[in-house]
Write a structure and sequence with these properties.
This protein is an alpha/beta fold and 563 residues long. The protein contains 25 helices and six strands.
């Protein structure tokens, strides 16, 4: 069989496997019942016009009131900029004003139409990228994913579907599989393409990434694409054609606009490449490489200047890193989460980590070509170490962007160990595929991906059965309630309260004019019996029954009150 035909067959097998993996993603997506509050926030940031949160107290939030009344001066851009700069540099004045205005706000009944408007694109607001940009500038993340999500949703106005964001994630998953293939071909390891794609695509980590309505699958793609271009530049003697510069610069900008964690991985690659260029005395290439990154960084900042504040000064910025708990415990937690991503039991994961670490140290000492190993290992592990320090929560989602690169590292290491132990390459490859297949099948049979939120269909069933009754939601904080947006879209009207705001139930006209209403209380809220008694006292209702008691600690208990 000639090489061309063999390559065509290999490509056909690869595409078939990717299609099967896409089918697996669709299967798990069909099982997704509910949403994380960040997922709903992403939809709202993408589609709500000039506001990124479903406000419990009216249509306009405190921030927008300040912008409209104290910053924007119609017809005077200079004065508007001056006002904005004043409040930006005088945080005490801003906080005082914010506190004064917010203290006058109070919860109001929100209609199902208002809830729908938060998550969907109105016909007259399609492709409104200025609003998306504004909403993301108020957040702590770059805007690219929300721009894409808004674009997809704009083709389906007044419609909400979990499959809108899923189409974006699935496209980037397919792209990631192709980049994995390109990297292994570049490393002359094409025989490892299928095992690597299977290891990644069948992992609980990859499935969780794809079904999570956030930017992490896109981040994984651009992280790996940047990695591929870096390896390519290294392989060809650090020479950069005009095409390579454009591709590297574009990927850098898009990765930066996807998620700031991209910068950590890119920095690792950048430092290693600079060191290798200096070692090889590639001064002209060094200048070109650095200049490409400087230009890319400047373009990124010019496109999204608020990034400077978000990265360095926001509550999620690098300045908040010291407030995120003990570092070593956090790092250990992230290692455990990586075992979970590949469905490895703790003991087996620790053994595998020790073996792989020892093996890569051995390979590095023996290898004549250390550059590839440095580029493979340092950016990946630098990212894990830094993310363990700066991430606000110790959750696997913050490592989703690294899983493709980790899958390549695992397969390369496993293949090297097998081939060193077993001299027959065909038998060694068969054993490698069997090991990965068994591990993947075990994971699929015994584990489930994150973000399914199984059981939320029970909430929606209750909402549909009582859709014309008032709905009172009691939670804590000003953000987490948006996890219940599908319920708010179902009930005729909803009153969103914090546990300290129960007095707004007293003599409430909507409840007075109804014979029954539905109450939802977050399970983590204490003094539940006291709250229920207060609800009875304030509303004058006499009885209540439990309709649903979610077993999860972060779930809710739903009651039906009657007169």
């Amino acid at each position: 069989m000639d090489i061309k035909k063999k390559n065509q067959i290999n490509l056909a097998i690869f595409i078939l496997i990717v299609l099967v993996l896409c089918g697996l993603m669709v299967f798990y997506m069909s099982k997704k019942e509910g949403f994380h509050e960040d997922e709903m926030f992403t939809y709202g940031s993408s589609n709500c016009t000039y506001d990124n949160l479903f406000q419990p107290h009216g249509k306009e939030d405190t921030f927008n009131k300040i912008v409209r009344n104290y910053i924007i001066v119609d017809g005077n851009i200079g004065k508007t900029v001056e006002n904005a700069w004043y409040y930006f540099t005088h945080q005490d004045e801003w906080n005082k004003l914010f506190s004064e205005i917010s203290s006058k706000e109070h919860p109001v009944w929100k209609t199902r139409e208002e809830a729908k408007d938060y998550l969907t694109v109105a016909p007259n607001e399609r492709f409104n990228y200025v609003s998306v940009y504004y909403n993301q500038a108020r957040d702590v993340h770059p805007p690219l994913y929300c721009i894409l999500n808004h674009t997809v949703c704009s083709f389906f106005p007044d419609t909400f579907s979990k499959y809108f964001f899923f189409s974006i994630s699935l496209a980037f998953f397919v792209g990631t599989c192709f980049v994995i293939r390109s990297i292994l071909k570049l490393l002359d390891k094409e025989k490892l393409v299928i095992p690597t794609v299977l290891l990644y695509g069948l992992s609980m980590g990859a499935i969780s990434t794809v079904i999570y309505a956030r930017m992490y699958m896109m981040l994984a793609f651009f992280t790996l694409a940047y990695f591929y271009l870096t390896l390519k530049i290294y392989k060809y003697g650090f020479k950069m054609t005009k095409k390579t510069k454009v591709l590297l610069g574009t990927t850098t900008i898009l990765g930066f606009l996807s998620q700031y964690y991209f910068c950590i991985f890119a920095l690792g690659c950048f430092v290693v490449m600079i060191a290798l260029m200096i070692k090889e005395k590639k001064w002209h290439e060094l200048k070109s490489y650095i200049l490409t990154h400087i230009i890319s960084a400047l373009i990124g900042v010019l496109i999204y200047p608020i990034c400077i504040y978000q990265i360095f000064f926001s509550y999620r910025g690098v300045g908040a890193a010291g407030a995120n708990g003990a570092y070593f415990e956090g790092l250990v937690k992230f290692v455990e989460l990586l075992f979970k991503a590949y469905s490895l039991p703790m003991i087996l994961g620790v053994v595998a980590l020790i073996i792989f670490t020892a093996w890569y140290i051995y390979k590095f000492i023996k290898s004549k070509e250390k550059g590839y190993l440095l580029l493979l290992i340092i950016p990946t592990f630098l990212s894990i170490l830094v993310i363990a320090k700066i991430s606000p929560y110790k959750e696997l989602r913050y490592l989703y962007g690294l899983l493709p690169a980790l899958s390549i590292l695992i397969t390369l290491g496993l293949s090297s160990i097998v081939n060193t132990t077993i001299k027959n390459r065909k038998i060694g490859m068969t054993i490698l595929v069997v090991i990965i297949s068994i591990a993947s099948i075990y994971g699929l049979a015994t584990k489930e991906p994150e973000h399914l939120y199984k059981g939320y269909s029970n909430y929606l069933k209750i909402a549909e059965e009582n859709s014309e009754d008032p709905f009172v939601y009691i939670g804590s904080g000003v953000f987490n309630h948006i996890q219940s947006m599908p319920e708010f879209m179902t009930y005729k009207e909803s009153l969103i309260l914090q546990e300290t705001q129960l007095e707004y139930l007293k003599d409430n006209e909507e409840l007075t004019n109804s014979n029954e209403f539905i109450l939802s209380i977050k399970k983590y809220i204490g003094n539940r019996d006291k709250i229920l008694q207060q609800v009875l006292d304030y509303t004058g209702y006499k009885n209540y029954t439990v309709l649903y008691d979610d077993e999860g600690e972060t779930g809710c208990i739903i009651f039906k009150f009657s007169k």
